[in-house]
Amino acid sequence: CMAMMASVLPHMPRGLPAWYVCMLFLPVGVSLLVSLFSSVWARRFKLLANPWMAGAVLLALPMVFARANPKPTLAAGTLSLLPFVGAALVLAALTASRSLLREAVPIVSISALLLAACFLLRQEPRQTAQRVSATPSADKPNVILITLDTVRADHLSLYGYERDTTPNLRGLARQATVYTQAISPGDMTLSSHASIFTGLYPSWHKAHFDPAYEWGRPLDSRYPTLAEILSGKGFDTVGIVANYLFLAPGFGLDRGFAYHDSAGPTVFLRTTKSFLLRERVRNFLTRFYRPWQFDVTFRRAEEINAAALAVLDRKKSQGRKFFCFLNYMDAHWPYLPPDRFATLYPGYDPHLKTDHYADMEREVLTLRRPISERERQHLLSQYDGGIAYMDRALGRLVDRLKQRGLYDNTLLIVTSDHGEAFGERAMVGHALSVYQDMVHVPLLIKYPRQNSPAVVDDSVSLADLMPTILSVLGYQAPKNMQGRNLLKAAPEAVSEPISETFVHPMISTWSPRFLRSQQAIFSGSLKFIQSSKGDRELYDLSRDPNEEHNLFEGQSVDGLESKLVQYLKAAAADNRKQAAAQAGSESIEKLKSLGYVQGK
To answer: Is 330 left (phi over 0), alpha (psi -120 to 50) or beta?
Structure first.
């Protein structure tokens, strides 16, 4: 049994606090130790001290709570515990030498103890005190920035999509500025949000996929974030996000937020490993319920709204100016729009379960087969349903801001961090390329007290948001910022946004075609793409929006290639400079420790 306990440790789910692991091991360990020295107690603890039950406590319960319920509730936790309790009672019945009721007492007691302990794992919002050196004047606007995660521009009816996915955004556009050619600096959440918050492109802020990091490199600490700057100006900074991976603490995108809420959803029976008893229970129950009631991975937009309005009401009552960042995830995989939004558009196929997507994704990306039309139509129906659901939530949020008197004098920005592929170029998902389905995103800005529509057709970058926000608030942008102020750009100046993708740590192991980085630069209607494999592509998006006709052969690229080369050289030089500074700092510390260098 002791050997079994030792072998269990490497298989414990990651991220469990040490105290929770101790609570799991304590009853099992005590039962084993007492059983060694007393035959009486050995009989009393034989149920918990046998290897089967010890293994169930140490492995099954963490799988239930830590992996299935990031934010458990009493109902969800209790129901998730039932398979374990049922199996324990069956074992007790088979081995009982006394009454089953007496055998069940320790099982129920331990189950109740661990169920109570799991609620201490609930992730509460982080709140930190702000050092306020100044208080914004009353005429300063508030700022609300909303990212609709994974939403490509061409799936919004605001941008001409045939399905009416965004009626509320169209209504908001009557009092806002719509940027028709907004480009994301990256094709995944980490790199694009880091550009939004720093005004820098990914090769500079370095928050992107990297072979040296399992999930991605954190944001370079040298660069201040928008939240840090506004916090220093006296704004209350609030971040409430559905993406609890890349936008949670650990990647640096939470820096500067005094209030940051990245909790996961309440889930009843999320999919787990196929060999678990819990998965068998889940598969049976899904016959009677819709997938969005089981497999939801992120908090819903309405939940984000409710959390945000509760905080903003407090800020308003306190007379505080605020910067509020919200992130919706309802169009992200596993594409599970709730209720009527799942069947709002044709193509929904109830037989295509969530676990089907993973197999399909790998087969398509490795060129073993193309995505079928049935699969594609199903995914599009769910994706568009998710966009329509977020649009409704956004409309309700705007209505509540108006009711609270927080709408007119607010800089309200709605955008997306990247798009999504549904079979184009044998790709599904994102973080794979810089083609338009990945990087052409919506951007709508309602400037303070704006009451008439405007449309901008020039190419702009999400890296332009930070300098624009600071300009609207009357603050100077940091000098190293690569984005430009959208309000003060010279009419004759041509914006040349850059977008980048990096080697995906997992998908690149599936297929060699993804063992490459890509960069794209935009100038007017022209788009030039280069790859670390040596590929070169040129497209005229005004005539070829789907990038089907490569014009690079025999076609001038108007210096775009040389600009990309210079950009990458400058970024590489900056990386070398930073590495040298870091190495120098470490060397000085070593010399200090040896007494060769004096001072602090």
So the answer is: alpha
Q: Which two tokens stand for residue 144?
A: 């609300």
Q: How far is CA 231 from the centre of its chain?
A: 23
Determine the 3-state secondary structure of 488 from DSSP.
coil
Indicate left, alpha or beta for 570 from its phi (over 0: left) and psi (-120 to 50: alpha).
Answer: alpha
Spatial separation of the C-alpha atoms in residues 147 and 475, rounded to whole Å: 23
Residue 594: both structure tokens together: 């040896």
Nearest to 269 by CA among 301, 299, 242, 293: 293
First to last CA, the chain: 53
Q: Helix, strand or coil for residue 496?
A: coil
| Cis amide linkage into residue 491, ω under 30° from 0 | no
Percent of the chain scoring above 70 in pLDDT: 70
Q: CA-CA distance, 265 to 280, in Å (whole number)?
A: 22
H helical segments located in 66-199: 74-95, 100-118, 167-172, 189-198
Give the Cα separation of 266 and 73 in Å (integer). 7
What separation in angstroms does the CA of 197 have from each of 202, 254, 403?
A: 11, 10, 29
Tokens of residue 564, six digits: 């990309």
Q: How far apart are CA 547 and CA 555, in angstroms?
A: 15
Q: What angle do CA 198, 199, 201 make, to 5 degrees?
A: 100
Q: How many CB atoms lie within 10 A of CB 75?
A: 10
Q: Judging by DSSP bridges, how do beta strands 126-127 and 259-261 pair with one another? A: antiparallel
The single-letter code of the amino acid at 214 is: E
**Which residues, including other chains, have CB under 8 Å from residue 143's CB and lie 6 or more apart?**
230, 235, 322, 323, 324, 410, 411, 413, 469, 472, 473
Q: In sequence order, what are the residues at sequence separation of 6 or more whose Cβ sits closer than 8 angstroms to the Cβ of residue 301?
A: 242, 328, 329, 330, 389, 390, 393, 394
Report how far residue 347's alpha carbon sits from residue 295's, in angstroms, rounded to the nearest whole number. Answer: 19
The kind and range of the H/E element at 242 are none
Backbone angles phi, psi at 366, to 5 degrees: -90, 10
Q: Are 143 and 230 in contact (CB under 8 A)?
A: yes
Q: Per-residue pLDDT tens for 266-291?
A: 665 566 666 555 566 666 666 666 66
Q: 125 with 259: CB under 8 angstroms?
A: yes
Q: Which residues contact 592 (CB under 8 A, 6 or more apart)?
A: 598, 599
| Least confident range of 76-80, 244-248, 528-532, 580-584 | 76-80
Dist CA 246 CA 560 (whole Å): 31
**The pTM of the whole model exceeds 0.85:** no
In angstroms, rounded to a whole number, what is the distance separating the alpha carbons of residues 96 and 117? Answer: 28
Name the average pLDDT for the chain. 83
